[in-house]
Amino acid sequence: xxxxxxMAFKLTYxxxxxxxxxxxxxxxxxxxxxxxxxxxxxxxxxVSPGHWATIELGxxxxxxxxxxxxxxxxxxxxxxxxxxxxxxxxxxxxxxxxxxxxxxxxxxxxxxxx
Length: 114
Fold this sequence. Notes:
There is one protein chain. The protein is 48% helix and 32% strand. A hairpin with a 4-residue loop joins strand 2 (9-13) and strand 3 (18-21). By secondary structure, the protein is α+β, with helices and mostly antiparallel strands. It has a four-stranded antiparallel β-sheet, with no helix packed on it. The protein is rod-shaped, with a radius of gyration of 31 Å.
C-alpha cells in the first residue's frame, strides 16, 4: 500500500485525461485502487486499477508556479507594451508640436516679407 498524505500530484487516466490535485488532497493506493479524499482515511473518490494509468508527484505545485510565472510574464509584457504606447504617443505629440511651431514660424516669416 502506498500512502502520501500531503503532496501535490497529477493523475493520468487510461484514456489520457489528466487531473491535477493540490497539496491538500490525501491519497493512497491499496491493491491497485486509488483512494482520494481531503482527510486521512476519509476517501471520497475510489478509482479502480483499470481506470488510472500514472501518478506524477509534485506536478500540481509546479504547474501552479508555472502559471503564476506565466501570468507575471504576461503582466510585465503588458506593462512594457503600455509604456511603449505612451512613449510613442509622446513622441508623436512632440513631433506634432515641433511641426506646428515650424509652420507658425514659416507663416510669421511670410507675414514679415509682406
